[in-house]
Amino acid sequence: MRRFGRTLVTAVLTAAVITGTAGWASADAQPAVTGPLPGTAAWLAVPGLPDPTTAAPGAVARFFAALPPEEAHALVRLHPLVVGNLDGVPLALRYQANRISILASGDGRYLSLAGSERRILAFDPRGRGQVVEVFGDLAHAEHVAVVVPGSDNDARTHDRARKAYSGPAGMARALRAASGDTTAVVAWTGYTTPVGVGFDAARVRLAEAGATRLTRFLAGLDAVGAPQPALFCHSYGSVVCGLAARHADARDIVVLGSPGMHAERAAALGTRARVWAAKGPSDWIDDVPNVEFAGLGHGADPTSAAFGARRVPAADAEGHTGYFVPGTQSLAAFAAITTGAAR
């Protein structure tokens, strides 16, 4: 009874924090972008093409490997939204298709992503927009990392110029610079994230949809021959990674500023990947109760000794988004994990 009472009190406190009495922002519920890829109906009208919804990334890769180059490029021109977002399609074709889709959108918010130097691995204009970008040469990289961001990230905020290391693209750039030229880093803004720190951020709904998409994306990397990646999961992104861990093809899973992973211990994640956790001394996530009750909260603190993750030094990381700032202990540790130097 006493244990139930403590849990109930914690849950009430969690709800109070989320609804704003502790200074958090509230936000409207976000509809998760799920279902068939945009353009699927027109794609499936062509006989013999793999179904984007049911074909595994490995099967997609085999289909394109057997396709004459001129036919593959014709599919890029005719169905760029499918080719650009379909896991298992060769990287160069996806980059080409997504440049076409971005330009065709006519949306000025996205046009910078169509630059010749950008490697856009996915672009989905539905909802708030989703984008996946590669920094480095993914086709020939010796080491690969994937950055999974948290709340308030979408195709428009993916690359935040004024906060260079707080957005997914900035985090990926910093990690790639710290890890060296043999590394490719992917900024994966590939799911519908919560807006603000309201009920969406306290619930698992969006993370469940994101975990499904992340698992398929990682299978797609494997299908095109990329090395087994290290995942760097920030804030609500760590919830996504926790749910995906059992089925995710990853060498390392690193969570930073995490509200929880829906597991009481690292061993309960059901992954063979090494699990790491970082939390800076001024990160406000430390004020979030680590509870999972009545659909609110995400469970144990991954940086607690009881959780059993390897601890990443982060004493000089400032605030909730300072983990990728050049010169910090955390970024140096992330680079060592990416290249396999950390033990």
What layout of secondary structure does this protein have?
Blueprint: H1 2-18, H2 40-44, H3 57-65, H4 69-78, H5 80-85, H6 91-105, E1 119-124, E2 130-135, E3 143-148, H7 168-179, E4 183-189, H8 199-202, H9 205-223, E5 230-234, H10 236-244, E6 252-256, E7 274-278, E8 310-311, H11 329-339
Helix pairs in contact: 3-9, 4-6, 7-11, 9-10
Report on the structure:
This protein starts with a helix and ends with a helix. It is built from eleven helices and eight strands. It is of the alpha/beta class. The longest helix is centred in the middle third of the chain and has 19 residues, at 205-223. Mean pLDDT is 91; it is low at 1-26. Strands 1-2-4-3-5-6-7-8 form an eight-stranded mixed sheet, with helices on both faces. The chain is globular.
Top keywords for this entry?
alpha/beta, 343 residues, 8-stranded mixed sheet, disordered N terminus
Report the order of strands and helices: HHHHHHEEEHEHHEHEEEH
Mean pLDDT over the full residue set: 91
Task: Give the termini distance in whole angstroms.
Answer: 43 Å
Total helical elements: 11
What structural class results from the helix and strand content?
alpha/beta
Biggest sheet record: 8 strands, mixed
Strand fraction: 5-15%
What does the radius of gyration come to? 20 Å
Backbone shape = globular
Low-pLDDT sequence parts: 1-26
Briefly say what this structure is:
The chain has helices spanning 2-18, 40-44, 57-65, 69-78, 80-85, 91-105, 168-179, 199-202, 205-223, 236-244, 329-339; strands at residues 119-124, 130-135, 143-148, 183-189, 230-234, 252-256, 274-278, 310-311. The protein has 343 residues and is α/β, with parallel strands linked by helices. Helix 10 (236-244) links the parallel strand 5 (230-234) and strand 6 (252-256).
